[in-house]
Design a protein that fits this description.
Cobalt-precorrin-4 Transmethylase, domain 1; alpha/beta; about 30% helix; 11 strands; 2 domains; five-stranded mixed beta sheet; Methyltransferase, Cobalt-precorrin-4 Transmethylase, Domain 2; 6 helices
């Protein structure tokens, strides 16, 4: 009998925003897989631990994904092999992801390899950072027939609401382009985390912020 893989979205940072299905899946899993950071479980694990304290008693599989944009195929292959090893022994594995597994998640880089080997996987949706940021700002992302675009670190001239994820290193450029096009911009840094910062106007937004920085352009 083989195990099943679950991609579990733990939300943007506040453990209270984890879904009941995410909590149930983590509690029922035999093994918890998550990206590591300096040899320790990453941010997603820390969020899950606050909501499911018993997670610390479960087998932990740390996966190494270097933080650069070069070829990561070796890292993805190694992670898939590690997960398959546990699935082949009959263990159900919960792979923790920030936000939702379908939004810029590492999971889908390895899911295809695992599926090719005949193993099942299921996606457990999570609340996205831009949904949580919208709520924090009391700001609708779209109204009526207004369009919504989501990018990773890139400003695009767009008629609608633009969400820019991972925007921290490009804030100065984003502010300049938004000002040139008479757009309003908002920033939420570390949404839902203890060190969360919220900015409601371009004048107060710094030129650079941390990795988990999200800009909404209206």
């Amino acid at each position: 009998m083989t195990g099943k893989l679950y991609a579990v979205g733990v939300g943007p940072g506040d453990p209270d925003l984890m879904t009941l299905k995410a909590l149930k899946t983590i509690k029922n899993a035999d093994c918890i897989a998550c990206p590591e950071s300096h040899g320790e479980p990453g941010v997603a694990y820390g969020i899950a631990k606050k909501a499911v304290p018993e997670i610390i008693s479960k087998e932990l599989l740390l996966l190494e994904f270097p933080m650069h944009k070069d070829d990561l195929s070796d890292a993805h292959n190694k992670a898939a092999e590690q997960i398959i090893y546990h699935l082949s022994s009959g263990k159900n594995v919960a792979f923790l992801t920030l936000g939702d597994p379908g939004i810029y998640s590492t999971f889908f880089h390895i899911a295809g390899m695992i599926k090719e080997q005949g193993y099942e996987f299921e996606i457990i949706s999570g609340i996205t950072s831009f949904s949580a940021a919208s709520a924090k700002l009391n700001l609708p992302l779209s109204l009526g027939d207004e369009s919504l675009m989501i990018t990773s670190g890139m400003y695009c001239e767009f008629e609608g609401t633009l969400v820019i994820m991972k925007a921290g290193k490009k804030l100065k450029e984003i502010k300049g382009k938004a000002f040139a096009h008479n757009k309003l911009i908002y920033l939420v840094e570390n949404c839902g985390m203890p060190d969360e910062k919220v900015y409601f106007d371009s004048q107060s937004i710094p030129d650079e912020a941390g990795y988990f920085s999200l800009v909404i352009v209206k």
